Amino acid sequence: MSSTTQKNSRVSVEERLFSLVLALIATEIGLTKADILSTVQGYRQRYLPGGDNSSLERQFERDKDDIRELGIPLEVVEPPDDPGSNHHLRYRIPKGLYELPMDVVFSPDELMLLKLAATVWREGSLSAESRRAMTKLHALGIDSSDPVLGYSPSLRVREASFEPLSKAMDRGQVVAFLYLKPGEAAARRRQVEPRAMVLHDGRWHLFGTDQDAAATRTYLLSRIVGPVVTVPGASFEAHGEGQGQTALSELEALWIANVAVISARPGSDAALRLAKRHAPGEIPANADASALHLNYTDLNVLADELAGYGPEVLVHSPALLRAAVRSRLISVRDAHTDSDSDVNPHPDASTEAGA
């Protein structure tokens, strides 16, 4: 393969992170930033010996944050002969802290099932849990590239907009996309300088500067409609590191500030699942002692989830969430009502969650 072909080949975010984790586990003394950028899959294709690698360095800083978010113990080792020097810092993942405990033993059948579960995600979109699992399988000496069965399913867990947004962010390119907000009849075009991609509360968000509003905004990737395109001739300069942390801090503050109070039918699927997310707080007078407090960042996302439980959930507050859940349930009921029938024997049966 020629050097030009190699530099132009695309390496997914997941593959780059996975390669970085494996490289940092394999080293005892650690790797310098230069070692990583020049040798690890996903960096080396764009590395310029003696050239400007500032965009790659910013990418590496974001990847370090992502690795730590996954619960991987990333260590930074200072050179003993040059303490305080950032240029010669070494990075490593202590194998003893990350590999499976010695007393954990799997049978051949169990290893096969673990390996098959991991390969479900290998085609382009590894979840956080799958990345951990595959790395631990490597620690057991299992080669994840060998097929276990003749067929394994392939799933994608990220929105289609993730890759083009990530690519544009790395290259400092302005993007445009259609964004559909809840309650709006049509999607609106947004022109954005992508600054960070963050995972919060199980969903991916884009943090960037909206050029029309001349202000930073956070967008839920699942609400981006259609393709993400780069704006010809439009670029921007990154404002340094910490953009992802800024976005996460804002989302976390919003999550803490928003609290829903609900009741779930005892023994139901809703009670089992939602009880795990209960945040203790003052129970209002109209709620029973088993009421659950749920923090949330997006009212409409939570309304969609609660409506899915149907009559298993009763929403107490806030009023806007109560109305949103009720509206969704009524829509479902009406969509399944026989238009030729003049009688609805249970007109309120499907609206219990919002009533």
Automatic annotation (TrEMBL):
Annotated WYL domain residues: 162-225
Region (Disordered): 334-355
Pfam families listed in its UniProt record: WCX (PF25583), WYL (PF13280)
Domain WCX: 273-329
Compositional bias of kind Basic and acidic residues: 334-345
Name of protein: WYL domain-containing protein
Protein species of origin: Cryobacterium sinapicolor
